[in-house]
Write a structure and sequence with these properties.
7 helices; disordered N terminus; alpha+beta; six-stranded antiparallel beta sheet
Length: 350
């Protein structure tokens, strides 16, 4: 992170000056010789008072010299995340409460924040600090498909009154610290794929390269028994050819239109099996890149998972040489409680 308003030397000077002024005033007030003093003492007191006036003038000059008419604050963080997914999460303000560092949404450390505008990847945010309103902009900037930055710019107009001006400077330092905390909280949340897509998604390598598949058409979304029938036919064909299953059954259901569906089921095997009118061998690039996720739940959860893994592929700019598929970890015919279904989702990419 960086800020355009780091002025520690000024703070040290101002504090040192305040200490000198206080000591001088104390000396002038406490001296019983201020009124009934001899000429030498009067001369000494006069020098003290002149010094005090000069110090006050110097302090006022320092306020205008070191504190500009507009205090600018810039805080920036880098994220290992795709801009499109982050933007989709942030545009919904209900998601902000999931990572906001304060107990109350948009309130933090005696400051209140209000999103006044959303234009593309730029958010206009007003920061209310005491009697002042600080205008700021939060900007999302893509670096690569999988990396980005978030830059937060704030600007506070200062008063001509030197005392108010110094108070606003100190308040700006509080704003700067708050912005750092808020951005770090945002980063920790947005870099986890489950917070954007609903579950963890990772890129791994294709584990099984040789499959035997069967394809069938339906005038409805195939039910559990119809899918299991396809799987059982594959298992019989594998046994008939004296081959071995290497993983759980795979499934992909494609909706052609409102009343036509095409389902394909496949099982990884130890070697390529002969093609027949009903069964066909399929091949994946072993060791190729593939997106992997796991969901628990019924058809709606699985369908939502497939949509989110498609969003992930698009957000990160991957292209796909093959269709996504489900790996049916749970035997759905035996487990009738859909909330207990475990399904792995895969999407070959490069």
């Amino acid at each position: 992170m960086e800020s355009t308003n780091e002025n520690p030397d000024f703070i040290k000077f101002y504090n040192h000056f305040a200490e000198i002024v206080c000591r001088t005033i104390t000396l002038a007030i406490s001296s019983p010789l201020t009124i009934f003093a001899n000429p030498e003492q009067r001369k000494a007191m006069k020098k003290i008072l002149i010094s005090l006036v000069l110090l006050l003038m110097l302090a006022f000059a320092a306020v205008y010299l070191f504190i500009p008419g507009k205090i600018k604050i810039v805080e920036t963080i880098s994220l290992n995340a795709a801009l499109t997914g982050v933007s989709r999460s942030l545009v919904d303000e209900t998601n902000w409460k999931k990572w906001w560092p304060g107990e109350t949404l948009f309130n933090y450390n005696k400051q209140t924040h209000s999103i006044r505008s959303k234009i593309s990847s730029v958010y206009g945010i007003d920061i209310y600090s005491g009697k002042d309103t600080i205008n700021s902009q939060l900007e999302l900037i893509a670096v690569k498909n999988d990396t980005m930055t978030i830059s937060w710019h704030a600007e506070q107009v200062t008063s001509n009154n030197p005392f108010t001006r110094f108070s606003q400077y100190r308040e700006a330092k509080v704003t700067e610290k708050n912005m750092k905390v808020i951005l770090q909280s945002m980063k920790a949340f947005l870099e986890k794929t489950q917070n954007i897509y609903g579950f963890e998604i990772k890129k791994t390598l294709v584990p099984d390269s040789v499959l035997i598949s069967v394809r069938r058409s339906f005038d409805h979304y195939p039910n559990v028994r119809e899918i299991d029938s396809m799987i059982q036919d594959l298992k019989k064909y594998i046994v008939h050819n004296k081959a071995f299953e290497k993983n759980s059954p795979m499934l992909n259901v494609l909706k052609l239109d409102s009343s036509h569906y095409e389902a394909m089921s496949a099982i990884p095997v130890d070697r390529a099996l002969p093609q027949t009118p009903e069964f066909a061998p399929k091949f994946l690039l072993k060791g190729g890149n593939i997106l992997e996720a796991q969901v628990q739940g019924g058809p709606h959860t699985i369908e939502n998972g497939l949509q989110e893994i498609e969003n992930y592929r698009s957000d990160y700019g991957y292209t796909s040489p093959a269709i996504p598929y489900q790996l049916l970890v749970t035997d759905r015919l035996k487990e009738t409680d859909t909330t207990k279904w475990i399904t792995k989702l895969y999407y070959p990419v490069f």
